[in-house]
Amino acid sequence: MSLGEASTMVAGLYIIGALITPDISRYCKSGKHVFWMIFSSILVGEFLINGVAILVAHALGTDNVVEIMLHSAGIIGLITIILSAIKVNDTNLYSSSLHMLGFLGSVTKRKFSYATMTIVLGLLGTFLSAAGILEHLTAFLLASGVFFPPIAGVMLVDYYILKTSRKILDETREKGLLPDDSQTPLIGWSAIIACIVGTLVGVFFNFGIPSLNSILVAGVVYWLLMKKR
Q: Is the pLDDT of residue 138 over 90?
């Protein structure tokens, strides 16, 4: 595996995390709380816990998580693995349900049941896991590294550079409401086109770091399309 591919896998995971972070951080009371929530999770989760895990894995000579936890922490370690897996899956299911309902609601103009969507996605995830999707984890991570970064690129350009609908968002935020459909476009075709172009660049152009290429291209294309409107 090349350095670019490895970087794409890592970047893809981080960007997916960044995209779904608002689902959790919306409960924070201020921007400072959001910052410290993210900073502490990266500092503790990525550097400390993963650093210790790497040292233990090298000491035991294995990359099997269950074996590592059993040898280092016994039954407590095994319980920790089970509980952490439940929590991670719970968070992912929460975010995927929210986004799927938002997408279907925007397209069909219908309101779907949160409980039903959660059950359907949970069953789908369980089926894919039982079918052996983890055997293709590397391919999935590489694909995520070029499919999701363009979304982040569009969001960054839209919010920080173009500041689209900023006045409407500020006004509705003060009222504790969301903008209605008449104030904002139902489908952002410029964003969709930019994401497609960014993804294609990440997939077919093998230079540099694909995830970085896709996010930059998507951002630039989106900016150009919006300026021509």
A: no
